[in-house]
Amino acid sequence: MLELVIDGQAVRAEEGATILGVARDAGIYIPTLCHHDALSPSGACRLCIVEIYPQGSKLPSMTTACNFPVKEEMEVRTSSQKVLEARRLRARVLLAKGPESRAIQEIAAELGVETTPFTLETDKTCIRCSLCVRVCREAIGADALKLITRSEGAEPHVEVSPNNCIGCGSCSLLCPTGFIKMEEAGGQRIIWDTAFEMKRCSHCSSYTTSEAHWKYIEEKTGTSSEFGTVRDMCPVCRRDAVSAELLDLPEHFTTSLFTSDFD
Amino acid sequence: MAVGKKDDLTIEKTACQHCHMSCDVLAYIKEGRVIKVEGDPDSPHNKGMMCGKGLAITQLTYHPDRIHYPLKRAGDRGEGKWARISWDEALGEIASNLNRIKETYGPEAVVFGHGTCRGWFPIYVGFINTFGSPNWYEPGMAQCFFPRCTSSVLTFGGEVMEHADHDHTNCVLVWASNPPNCWPVKAMRIMEAKARGAKLIVADPIFTPIASKADLFLQLRPGTDAALALGMVSVIIAEELYDKRFVEKWTIGFDKLRKRADEYPLSRVEAITQVPAEKIQKAARLYANNGPSCITQCVGIDQVIDTIQTSRAICMLPAITGNVDIPGGNVFDMLLPAGFPDQWRDNYERREAIPDEVLEKRLGFEKYPLLCGNDALLTPGAHIPSIIDCMETGKPYPLKALYIHGSNPLVQMADHNRIKGLFLKMDFISVADLFLTETAEIADIVLPAATWLEWDNVKDSFQQSYDSIGFQRKLVRIGECKSDITIFCELSEKLGLDYWKSEKELMDHRVRTLGNGFDEVAKRGRITFPMVYRKHERKGFNTPSGKIELFSKRLGELGEDPLPSYTESPESPFSQPELAKEYPLILTTGGRKPVYRHSEGRRIPWLRQMALRQEVAIHPETASLFEIEDGDEIVLESPRGQMKAIAFISHETRKEWIQVEPGWEGEWNVNRLTTQQYCAPLVGTYPMRGLLCSIRKATQGGVRG
Amino acid sequence: MAKYNFLFEVDRCVYCHACEIACMQENELPSHPWTRVVQAGPRYKGKILALDFLQQRCVHCEDPFCVRVCPVDGAIERNEDGIVLLYHNLCILCQACVNVCPYGALEFNPDKNIIGKCNFCLDRLREGHKPSCVHTCMGRALEVLGEEELELRVAGKKAKKAGLITYLLNTISRECDHH
């Protein structure tokens, strides 16, 4: 355990904890865009910037809270004028890159930023927050995405390995700007310019997820034999199947999902 | 959770106003904003229960489309151009127009309108009477509530038919009512009674959710309720299931009723109602033998061609079986007996403010004495079809202004196409509402009204509870919105009228017998009065004879049948067989959704997602006859006009009829099909249960007109 | 012995949708409530016309597939009371749980960008209150009961159980046909 001060409040923290984690536990809000509790921190969006005074020092420095470990007797200021100015600048940059992003709009509004002096990018753009790369590698385990820099001085961009991608869509739903497009049509899910065949409901013929994602799910759970006939249904038809079983309706029959009958 | 503070939350008691039930509510307030509501679990009235409509109040109160400021028309009428004005200017404009018209044409040239007026009905009428116009209407007067209550007062001397003691009953007869959708507290109590073992009988043209719980379901042809009731009466009398001692001691005219009932043998009733004779017999026996029994009835019986006789016929059931003011029967309310003068009985309506010579000018005065004149047993008002005729012809005098609160007549009144044209010709229209409704859109001035989170009110209407009163409290203020009552008070001042000075003065007066001012009384929450049954044993019934009037001399004097009788709908396959060839289906407008009330609720996202569109149930055989498939867009047509709907194929209806839900705007509005041309005697109801219509797929041509 | 069980008495539901709206209010959802009620019928069972209403929601399985499939440790877990909880801060929206649940009880909510499922209103339970759907239920069809109370309520009646939800069937006698 070590002790530090955040916004004048004395707090205790575990060794190795980040400033963001400790601040949140103490009920102090710090905005984030690229942070996700299930993934490693990246510091890319720089919205979580704070001012720190190392032990005994009067010389402050600025750092991102999400990936900076707390130190004994450090002092942290999360909402000083300097911090807020830095965040506002960052928000203006992000607002130009993702003017339609609800997540960015909300954070900008919190900071009192309504407009941006930078040129608006009309297309949904990548802000290189690397959420997609991290979720694919660390959580899904497919490791299909990489953030690479093609040449010196150029901004990094996301590169996809289509063979590794299973078309689960996590990256698209986590992407704060809508840059990663996922479309579904004609029984295919198209993401990262790759088409995935989709699993089809045996009852209503609607599509659920990509076949590759379904294979991943079954491998992970080993549920094939436990499912019975609902295996190939969409969630809505599964709900109805359960209801039908309850009411002894003839259509939709299934291996029982009920654990006991009380009869 | 107790009322009080928790963290940064304040929890306050109030009462809902989304329907007449007035459920007790806990409102959670954070930083001046109501963030959540739920039913008060300590309430003896709703016991924590609350329906979806009430729960969605936060989405209504904070709805982005609400009108927050007074608006003045800035373009042509209905063009949709508005200018924001101050309250002072808005009320000044209204006052100068109303006073100008009053001086030039007389007060009768100003027509006042309102909607369900939940909790402020007599108070608004008091304002109108003080202004001096005899012409005010409420679509729910002759069309709902008024006929059935009038019949109850004629027969029993009070509104006993409105209150069923579900908590102690053994048999509930739900007649033309849809409690889960429209009367949530009643629905809760019916289901509790049912779970306790009480029997349930439901009479309805449609197999509704409550009908699906019934031990007996009587699926009658729309508009034939009187015949069904008389059929049950005939069984009860013929099989001697009635309460002989009660009938002898407390009723008059039983022998005459017996003779009348003989005219309704089950074979005849079955032919009229399409309910099998055997089921009518079973229902009569169940109701009579499995007592105490109670009846929960509603608007279905108020929209037939002879509303007084229909509801009188149903009154006969408790009257001859003695299910009157006993535990588990139909009961008289306890408000006045307990010494609390509620708004209906405390002369808030100021009847005396209208001089007789002005009253006689009321449209409908001579023809509809039980609705319009001094013979009316409840708050009298004008007759809508007579108003509409007068607007059209200018006879007997011109109508120049419409002043409307909380009502959307262009959606809710019959014969939409005709009335819209007439409304547009008015000199001046003012509407107070929450949104720019179809009616508000054609107004000259629109006033921003308040939701029930924004004003104080005493919930003492006898329709909400027979033995308790609740309190609605002002918790937030939105924009410049004001409660309807505040608007009357402030407008009165501009008009130079002697009316209540403020909402506070009025509310303090209303609770004067309970304590020291509204704030102090309301904080305590709902007040329950101890129930006393068999009140007639002390004072008799409040009728001319002091007894229950099976035979009503008063009706005879008014030129009507003193005994209940059945009249066939003027527009049915039997009364107009030729018209029925072109319009072969029977139309009823009794559809209600649990998430909407009349024309309200369709803008609220939580509610709308539960019922996205105007859906009309069509029996599978009818659907196949008209080559309609599930989900098809269809056009319904009557001699008056056309409307659009989405078909769903269902056994909930019978093949001969379809039921449509009123309240949808635009081309989905069922009132494009209805008419005001037929009117019931005495109260002037225009029937909407049992008209004729046809259906076809929309692909065979869209909606005209 | 489960401390909390949902009891849904099928015959008492009046299809008022209040549970769904209460759920959306409690959990601050614009749409996609975590409990739903659906209508089955009207349909003929022989000569009898039947109409039933059913709750559809997470049943809180003993060995939940969603917990097995979730790629993030602790994002979905079954707590000591058997209640299956999904932590939105740890969820990565991969929808493996949505696709694997045999009850179809998890759903992606596009308006909130979250996966939704019933959490028994655990915060309310802890404060001694009923879940919002139970609290507001018009037909008194829904209840939360301990194991012993549950056994008493279903004794001798037709009931089916899955996880922590028990459906009580045909408790209200309907003797007459509606033909």
What does this structure look like?
- Chain A is of the alpha+beta class.
- Chain A has helices spanning 19-25, 81-97, 102-110, 131-140, 170-174, 211-221, 224-227, 235-246, and strands at 2-6, 9-13, 49-53, 61-64, 75-77, 145-148, 157-160, 182-185, 188-191, 194-200, 207-210.
- Chain A has a 5-stranded mixed β-sheet, with helices on both faces.
- Chain A is globular, with a radius of gyration of 24 Å.
- Chain B folds into 3 domains: 71-143 and 341-458 and 479-515, Rossmann fold, CATH 3.40.50.740; 160-331, Dimethylsulfoxide Reductase, domain 2, CATH 3.40.228.10; 577-700, Barwin-like endoglucanases, CATH 2.40.40.
- Chain B is 30% helix and 17% strand.
- In chain B, a hairpin with a 2-residue loop joins β3 (24-30) and β4.
- Chain C is of the alpha+beta class and 179 residues long.
- Chain C has 6 helices and 10 strands.
- In chain C, a hairpin with a 2-residue loop joins β2 (35-45) and β3 (48-57).
- The chains are: A alpha+beta (263), B alpha/beta (705), C alpha+beta (179).
- Chains A and C meet through α4, α5, α6 and α8 of A and β2, β3, α2, α3 and β9 of C.
Globally, the shape of chain B reads: globular
Instruction: Return the structural class of chain A.
Output: alpha+beta
Spans of chain B of at least 5 consecutive residues whose pLDDT stays below 50 are: none
What's the number of extended β-strand segments of chain B?
Answer: 26
What separation lies between the terminal Cα atoms of chain A? Answer: 57 Å
Helix fraction of chain A, binned, reads 25-40%
Spans of at least 5 consecutive residues with low confidence of chain A: none
- Give the count of structural domains of chain B: 3
User: Residue-averaged pLDDT of chain A, rounded?
Assistant: 90
How large is the count of helical segments of chain B? 26
Alpha carbon gap, first and last residue of chain B: 54 Å
Sheet having the most strands of chain B: 7 strands, mixed
- CATH class call of the largest domain in chain A: Alpha Beta
Indicate the mean pLDDT of chain B.
Answer: 95
